[in-house]
Amino acid sequence: MTQHHNLIGGQWTPGASCAPNTNPSDLSDVIGEYAQGGADDVQAAVAAATAAFPAWSTSGIQARHDALDKIGNEILARKEELGDLLAREEGKTRPEAIGEVARAGQIFKFFAGECLRLAGEVLPSVRPNIGVEITREPIGVVGLITPWNFPIAIPAWKIAPALAYGNCVVLKPADLVPGCAWALAEIIHKSGIPAGVFNLVMGRGRVIGEALVNHPGVAAISFTGSVGVGRGIAEACAKSGKKVQLEMGGKNPQIVLDDADLAQAVELSAQSGFYSTGQRCTASSRLIVTDAIYPAFVEALQARMARIKVGDARAAGTDMGPVVSQAQLEQDLAYVEIAKAEGARLAAGGERVACHTGSGRQGFFMAPTLFVDTAPGMRINREEVFGPVASVIRVQDYEEALAVANDTPFGLSAGIATTSLKHATHFKRHSQAGMVMVNLPTAGVDYHVPFGGRKGSSYGPREQGRYAQEFYTTVKTAYTLA
Q: What are the boundaries of the signal sequence (predicted)?
């Protein structure tokens, strides 16, 4: 069995132990063994990053551009291979996985360009003969803690801006999906970036993540994951004065008004709710539908769900792959029982299923699941399930739909299906979400614009696009006497 080591100070370094990386579509398929590091590995990685920071942070912008562009080009050249790996270890369908890999490559190429677009300001002082310069500088060593549901795109959209703005990085990927992170680390290692600028430490979150968050040499933490862990990180960073950026999930509403195009509304709801096995923080799990269209919408969505083929993520014809792990599958099925107990009516799915390809492989497959006649206060409508489970809430009109959509502790993404310019315009302004979609799935965002939410979904500066500089740089104001 191939063993994959951590990357520390430019050297592939074994961990204290290794753990198998198993294919959720085929539990007999072990992709490889990946290092399980410890606190000592974090110490070594931070020391290497600290040593590399002075030279890298003041290096020429052309060198940084060339390195990031080279990384992006190699990712794009290998998108089929890397997409197959992603589908194999995470369970996203192969076409979706290839698309995610392509996005990772595009992110690196975008931030290669940002290396050449670093901007500041020159202003006159209110005092005579004095000039003022406002510039941005890197913040230091950055700890990046990434989730399992986007195992190459999310590491990319954290690593690329960190490096572009002159920081050094220690990446801790999710334990369930080390393969994509390791492959990305190998590409970065071969790009010519100096030793120590980028470091990979794999292992348990309670060990590696905690050591990163509490290390005095780490200037900032960027985390994507659960609300509970994120809040703990925020508290720890506040105590030590670290800069912190958190993306923590959502309970995203999709409104469907009476005047919506029914076929369009059904398709975008199916795409948002069930593709990627519903394992997206931007997925629509609350479908808020007005009275007149409600019966037709539910009937049409049930028919659309019946055509979703569940099976091996790498097999042709699969629409929805497996749930990522046994623990996640158990959580999803537990929410099905909770919803039933609360009085929600199960309209489709709700159970574990066999692979549609007939291969006989054992995997974590679950049918796309729909509850109808649900109430806003039910747990199924308040808590993030993070699986292929959606519920329908019936409302009288747009005003009630908006109120229900905003009645959530989260605020990441929100959508509306309507042909009314009045309602679309009002919703864009009054939706309490960081990202709003009109006649589009709530899941699906561009890499060159800000990503992030409000309320319990996000904390700190936005990710992606030019707004990434707000987190990965600090502002300096310099005065000069003429």
A: none
